[in-house]
Automatic annotation (TrEMBL):
Residues 7-148 form the UspA domain. This is Universal stress protein. Belongs to the universal stress protein A family. InterPro entries: Universal_stress_UspA, UspA. It holds the Pfam family Usp. It comes from the Bacteria. It comes from Chryseobacterium shandongense. Signal peptide: none annotated.
Length: 302
């Protein structure tokens, strides 16, 4: 259980736009509360061409230029943050693989506990087809992911909404929820929610978790509702009580939905305006690895 009850290394994805500014600030505040270090990460997109001889890099000068520019920009951010927050250890890293492969390498090498990524709001058709970087990170990295809305300035989590909707890793999610509540001097609102088909199972798990909280020092409240529109109900509960953070289990009971349908992840991202922490255990395999760069497949001559 030790790995679930400490946050010692935080990676924040930086793309030098406004949407990652809030994510970086959040990483700093969390690092201070948890006595953690921060890794500033940026990924440089590669461009390549595929022909009958195999994959070949094109635009190498451009890629190298972008790498140097990214390295310089990341160093400036690191130095600026280090001056303002001298009590925090800042590291920087630049990836050149796919964004998820690059992050997963750092997750393994540096024992990263949480990846923070900024989100810019609702996903349009382009993001639905190609996949936004934040959504790729959520689906593909091997640790918990905290998604920070671009315009959000909520850096302390005093009111934490913890839905109980799927059973996988529920106890582990509760442990990290209690840790964050403790570090923020906040409280947990346990929100049981089930569809018509799994009411008994979810209700039983909800009661068990509620009872375990009664024996802890964590301030908490509890409620239960029945709905098949879980993302909508969670979003509504969050807005009504003005929660600071929603902690969700990285499981999607509606993953069978077609690509062009909004699964639970897309619904909750598009309908909330507070930070979302998706708890993901290290033994959960990543999904949907995205291509690195842009492929141009050439026909065979003749």
């Amino acid at each position: 259980m030790e790995k679930h009850t400490k946050i010692k290394t935080i990676l924040v994805a930086v793309d030098f736009t406004e949407k990652t500014d809030s994510a970086a600030i959040l990483a700093v505040h969390m690092a201070r509360r948890h006595n953690a270090r921060v890794i500033l990460f940026h990924n440089v997109m590669n461009f390549f061409i595929i022909d009958r001889t195999g994959r070949q890099m094109i635009g190498e000068d451009t890629v190298n230029k972008h790498y140097v520019e990214a390295e310089n920009s990341l160093e400036l951010i690191k130095n600026s943050l280090q001056q303002s927050y001298s009590d925090i250890v800042f590291l920087k890293s630049i990836g050149t693989d796919t964004i998820t492969n690059s992050i997963n390498k750092i997750v393994e090498e540096e024992s990263v506990n949480i990846v923070i990524t900024g989100t810019s709001g609702k996903q349009g058709l382009r993001e639905l087809i190609l996949g936004s970087s934040s959504y790729q990170i959520l689906k593909g990295v091997n640790c918990s992911v905290l998604m920070m809305p671009e315009n959000c300035k909520q850096y302390k989590f005093e009111k934490i909404l913890v839905p109980v909707r799927v059973l996988e890793k529920l106890n582990e999610k509760l442990e990290i929820s209690k840790l964050i509540a403790e570090k923020n001097k906040g409280f947990i609102s346990l929100f049981g929610i089930s569809g018509d088909d799994n009411f008994t199972t979810i209700r039983r798990a909800f009661i068990k978790i509620r009872e375990s909280l009664k024996g802890s020092e964590t301030e908490h409240y509890a409620s239960f509702t029945v709905s098949n529109d879980k993302a909508v109900e969670i979003s509504k509960a969050s807005k009504d009580a003005e929660f600071d953070l929603i902690i969700l289990n990285y499981q999607d009971e509606e993953s069978w939905k077609s690509f062009f349908s909004e699964n639970f992840f897309k619904q909750i991202i598009n309908n909330t305006s507070v930070p979302l922490l998706f708890f993901k255990d290290n033994d959960i395999p990543p999904q949907d690895s995205e291509p690195a760069g842009y492929d141009i497949t050439l026909p065979f001559p003749g």
